[in-house]
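Minutes, project huddle
Topic: does the predicted pose make sense with 4'-deoxy-4'-aminopyridoxal-5'-phosphate bound?
PN asked that the exact inputs be recorded in the minutes so nobody has to dig through chat later. Recorded below.
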Amino acid sequence: MTKVVNQSRTRVMDAALRERARSVIPGGMYGHLSANALPPEYPQFYQRSQGAHVWDVDGNEYVDLMCSFGPVILGHQHPKVERAVAAQLAEGDTQAGPAACMVEAAELLVDRVAHADWAMFAKNGTDATTICLMVARAATGRNKVLAAAGAYHGSAPWCTIRLDGVTPEDRANIGYYVYNDIASVEKAVAEAGGDVAAIIVSPFKHDAGFDQELVEPEFARQLRALCDRIGAALVIDEVRAGFRLNDGGSWEPIGVAPDLSAWSKAIGNGYPLAAALGSASYSEAASRIFVTGSFWFQACPMAAAIATITAIREEGAIPTMVHIGTLLRSGIERQAADAGLPIRQTGPVQMPNLKFEDDDDFARARVFSGAAAAHGVILHPRHNWFISAAHTEHDVDRILAATWEGFRAVRKQLGGS
Ligand code: PMP
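Predicted holo structure (tokens), as shared on screen:
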């Protein structure tokens, strides 16, 4: 067993668990939470989480800039959410059927999200995007769906990022366009020959490993007009950005309403819940499709969602995240200039994204994030980070102390001092 030492951070338990995991978990760990692809300074296993901080199994504490890849929007163990979950748990969670809070959660989402007249619940973002496509197909009687090339909509065969285990037939009804390029959408529509059930789009282009790109309002409006013209459903995948940009649908500020939207991650502050939302004209089709899951009607995540969505508004979570994200972005900008290292920070400040220039192989990003982890901050080398409403200015100072060590490590890697 290798004992990894970072600064004063020992990781004996983590190394032991990784070794045991290699025997009983494929690849030792799979999917995007696998630390195998991360710099060696990253722990794989965590012990506890509180507010904006997490502790690994060896007791090392970190500022958490990943927020579990988005779900944790109010901070880990937010008291109002935990109280709502504890109260529901005392009554029951996985029961003979849903609890009253299912209706209350649906009413709250319909109230908050302007385009939505109904809600269906599931567990993961993939469930929600897939349900939206099934509803669109049931409503239109058509087969094809157009998605932006490189966009992530989940890990089902129709959209997962690797083709192992996927058949050509799984992808046969998916066409691709270029984000923010309406001509490419028109071309994909023409290629689909009148068989387009839906166009799926994320609120902004947030593909991992690339600069982020905000939606051009004109592109959003053109997509809406195009869907209306060809009778296809416009589906927004809110799974990653939902409730971090706007206290309703992410495109509400630009006045573009989808027909269907897919939500998960932040709606339950970490409790497992997803939702497909839709407008009234898709309600009949939604009632016809057969989708379900053994755990989809658990009451605790729904109680968590009610508390979370209520607190996001009551506690001004979005302005807090914008404030913290702005401080962090300007601090990192200054550090990069001081270190003489050209970087690009793109996308909304609540979902920070940093790319080093001349770093297509992410070598600099790896060294940077490895040094950050060694100095007590969890941030990903290729994926956007997530601010929560629990991050404070003090956390920003701690993050900046770690990112400065990251910039120094990159300079050293490049042969500087
Ligand atoms: N859509 C987007 C935009 C996502 O970011 C994700 C998850 N990263 C998904 C869908 C799939 O969500 P899940 O992993 O919960 O299935």
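Observations noted during the meeting:
- The chain has two domains: 12-74+316-413, 79-314.
- Residues 317-339 form the longest helix (23 residues).
No decisions taken; revisit at the next huddle.
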